[in-house]
């Protein structure tokens, strides 16, 4: 199924993409007059169209839809609402928009007030919304209601949210709620929309005032923060595409909060990358579990009768957390009066059954399929690193590997970075560095001229740096922070 999102230079389009990409078999197109619009990097295909105010917009849109065999059009903003509503009547493809008369009543303030009064949804005639806001905006309770009405006139489940905080006109914290009175208000309003041939996704802003919920605005498109609630709210796009599944019983919504950070609501312009170079430990491979597993095997092999395995492991883990990785065995030997030489020799030979992080192989597989060259740049002793690669079977994923200890120039020295990119036969401005260490991986990649720097901060890793301090000390270094490799894939996705 081919779905087109129009006038997509906005956050609402991103929310639509996030909902649509969870539905199998959907090819996502976006259209806009700006070729560098942010959602372009998230959708499967981009269509350049004139602006909605230009005279040839309608014809260009129709031609593009016919050429690309578009099945459904979903608008993301009010820019082309009037045109789409007019086009809906005689179009060969479905358009998730209400009929022209209803659109005129929703998007124009004077019409909206009259429409609401005519249909018994008017506010107290003695109170205007300006007067309500003047009574003290911070003290007012704000709510959002979200739902979809599909092409058969069937509504979805209603998602109700209480707005907790708003920053720069963006809802940054909201909470899924259950409120029977509010639900009844919205249900009645949906019937009004259906009677006036409402169609598409709706979000409604309400204010609680004097024991009533007053409808402040009605928008016939998705809300920009809806996509952040995919796991706990309804997927309204699924309703539009396939209608309501009556066999599926709706579950009671959980009172969960959604957090939207303003800094995360923009995407950087992606460079033209050819190679992605990874650090190994704490990026691809869990270093701490590997060390702990080796300590357990070490205790079993050397039979340290003077100290219990539990105490030996607990002490080793504490030393790790304190940052004593390089001299870990020396410290354990000193604390428990154990033979250091025997410990080190045996430790080096042990190979525990520790696997890579679960998200690694799927992401590496996808990046290889997209044509990226994959490199590995790691500092730790080569023998140990080779053990890890062999135990996981990851060697074949990498087009080139460089162990910095073999050349004597460990990260962040640029020589190691230049060495790996040379092996891959790419330029520095065609490389992306991915690692967990702000100073070794990020600073090293920056000094080497890499085009993209990605800081992967997994929970429980060995290194947990102060990001704010780093940015203060290194303001010239631009990098992108990700919690796992799935987010990295989204950043690098070439589709």
Protein described:
- With 495 residues, this protein is α/β, with parallel strands linked by helices.
- The protein has four domains: 1-96, NAD(P)-binding Rossmann-like Domain (Rossmann fold, 3-Layer(aba) Sandwich); 98-262, ATP-grasp fold, B domain (D-amino Acid Aminotransferase, Chain A, domain 1); 275-284 and 355-492, HAD superfamily/HAD-like (Rossmann fold, 3-Layer(aba) Sandwich), CATH 3.40.50; 287-349.
- 37% of the residues lie in helices and 19% in strands.
- Strands 10-9-6-7-8-11 form a six-stranded antiparallel beta sheet. A six-stranded parallel beta sheet has the order 14-13-12-15-16-17, sandwiched between helices. It has a five-stranded parallel beta sheet with strand order 3-2-1-4-5.
- β13 (373-378), α14 and β14 form a beta-alpha-beta unit.
